[in-house]
Amino acid sequence: MKKSVLFFCFIFVLFSASTTIAVNPNIVLILADDLGYGDVSCYGATHVKTPNIDRLAAEGIRFTDAHAVAATCTPSRFALLSGIYPWRKRGTGILPGDAALIIPPESVTLPSILKNSGYTNGVVGKWHLGLGTPESPVNWNGEIKPGPLEIGFDYSFIIPATGDRVPCVFVENHRVANLDVNDPITVSYKEKVGDEPTGKERPDLLSLHPSHGHDMTIVNGISRIGYMTGGESARWIDENIADTITAKACQFIETNKDKPFFLYFATHDIHVPRVPHPHFVGKTSMGARGDAIVEFDWSVGEILQTLDRLNLTENTIVIVSSDNGPVVDDGYCDRAIELLGNHKPSGSLRGGKGSAFEAGTRVPFIVRLPAKNNAGKVSDALIALIDLPASFAALANPTMNQKILETAIPDSENVLPALLGETNCGRENLVLSGASVSLRHGTQKIILPNQKGQVISANTFIETGNNPNPQFYELKNDISERSNIAEKESKRWEELRTILQKIRQKKVIVP
Ligand code: NG6
Ligand code: CA
After folding, report:
1. 3-class SS of residue 236
2. Can you tell me which atom of ligand 1 is nearest the CA of 72?
3. 85 and 200: one domain?
4. Mutational test site, ligand 1, from 159, 162, 189, 460, max ligand atoms within 8 Å of CB
5. Is the pTM of this model over 0.90?
């Protein structure tokens, strides 16, 4: 960062109203799935109304340059909970539903840091970080561990992987919820198990047809990725997922209202298969994808109302964000493309889910803590979900040993002053992984050359950002990454690449 900018940040911190906050405010992190930068009204959407998310922005800070560090789910969520860039560890790509847990038990994590500071932690919703170990794969009919409870959560009610991957059941703490022991579950990602027909064999049985993949076991009229058999009584009904997990999330708040709590509420919306409850069907002109956004906004509203009702609003930090950028066709024929109209899921950004361009990782990010008087602020600080472990450590346990933190969560930076509205300065550097690796340095961005090919994803039709040549964009005057200045600014490009290399080569212990 330039000296003048640093100086400005310093002055800003000194003179900003630093309202004191009660010790250990509650924390609710609501993480949508695949919600794009342009998908909610307070970020410019006009074809869908999101009054609850907009309320949060009106009462808090809306960040315009906040990122997930990866453009897909598993690596993004791995970074959020572990404070480690996903590319430092093998096996952090999109996981199948029978994968082992990729965050080792007992490691320092976002929830374990808060637990050590006296918080009670709950996770409700999409997990997608694996369960069990490679040596002892999950038995879905027995005790399912290690999982969330072994890395710092006290309560969990999870979708094990994704809505479009088997097993299509909820896991509550160590057990599949509502499982009938006489109808055991078997899961395989290699071969068909049991004798239930697959989507490929019996497309006539489907209520929602795949456009790519997703043609294996049929659950609730929808064929999925992977095979499962059994567990009939435990299988979810897609239309009710939002209701079920929102109720569990609100219940967790209610149960823990008298102590500091951290709730990580990871919705299935707006990931595929998009099957909103009939109550939301037709709420937008955009079909299932638009209606799923309205359903997500409803879930946010239920959480806000619960906090209001329990008088917890004033002393609770609420964050709404997304795990990666948007995608329109992600493998099912739900008419999302046909009905999109003028809606721009990425806003004015280029790319989308999976992409190295900004829309892959730049996501909506709103923080509200009423006690801090930040109503209606907008911040362009560069921050990322990976910064939450270090920032919440600073919030909940400011005397925690910094050396331990630097070793355990090496890529997480304390951006608490930005989250609390005391400064508009965030990080100096941020490494992003989409189809290629990028570095953000202030408003400058480079994308490393990538020989892998595919300029447009064959499945999602999203621009990947792959390019055999160096790319360099100055986002300050080129937010849509249209003007590649790498050749003209080759010296600066090299400097930025050196910064990126240093970060990548940093010696880090990865558990
Ligand atoms: C892709 C799936 C997509 C989605 C994604 C993971 C196909 C053709 N595409 O492989 O539907 O499940 O993985 O999404 O199978 S994420 O948000 O969890 O990263
Ligand atoms: Ca996702």
Report:
1. coil
2. 19
3. no
4. 162
5. yes
In Å, how far from its chain's centre is CA 293? 15
- Answer yes or no: do 114 and 196 share one domain: no
- 75 CA from centroid of ligand 2 (Å): 10
User: 440 and 403 in one domain?
Assistant: no
* Residue 471 confidence class, pLDDT cut points 50, 70, 90: very high
164 lines ligand 1 (CB under 6 A): yes
Does residue 511 fall inside a structural domain?
no
Coil/strand/helix, residue 27: strand
247-305 pLDDT, tens digit per residue, is 999 999 999 999 999 999 999 999 999 999 999 999 999 999 999 999 999 999 999 99
Domain coverage including residue 449: 429-505
Helices assigned H by DSSP within 352-483? 388-396, 402-408, 416-419
- Return all residues near 235 (Cβ < 8 A) that are at least 6 apart: 168, 169, 219, 220
CATH code for the domain in which residue 69 is found: 3.40.720.10
CA torsion through residues 218, 224, 227, 231, sign: negative
- Calculate the alpha carbon distances from 437 to 215, 229, 356 in Å: 31, 39, 7
- Residues 293, 357, single domain; the answer is yes
pLDDT band at 6 (very low <50, low <70, confident <90, very high): very low
Structurally, how many domains does the chain consist of? 3
The residue nearest atom 3 of ligand 1, judged by CA position, is 330
354-388 pLDDT per residue, tens: 999 999 999 999 999 998 999 999 999 999 999 99
Question: Among 389, 419, 449, which residue terminates a domain?
Answer: 419
328 lines ligand 1 (CB under 6 A): no
Ligand 1 close to Cβ of residue 331 (< 6 A): yes
Lookup: tokens for 353: 């889910």
**Dihedral sign computed on CA atoms, order 462, 464, 465, 469:** negative
Phi, psi at residue 77, to the nearest 5°? Answer: -75, -30
What pLDDT is recorded for position 53?
Answer: 98
In a domain, 119, yes or no: yes
Choosing from 419, 437, 464, the residue where a domain stops is 419
> Is 17 a member of any domain?
no
Asked whether residue 1 is assigned to any structural domain, the reply reads no
Average pLDDT, the chain: 95
Q: How far is the CA of 351 from the centre of ligand 2 (A)?
A: 15
Task: Report pLDDT for 20.
Answer: 54
- Ligand 1 centre from 330 Cα, in Å? 7
Find out whether the beta carbon of 213 lies less than 6 Å from any atom of ligand 1: yes
434, 355 contact by CB (below 8 A)? yes
Q: Give residue 167 CA to ligand 2 midpoint distance, Å.
A: 18
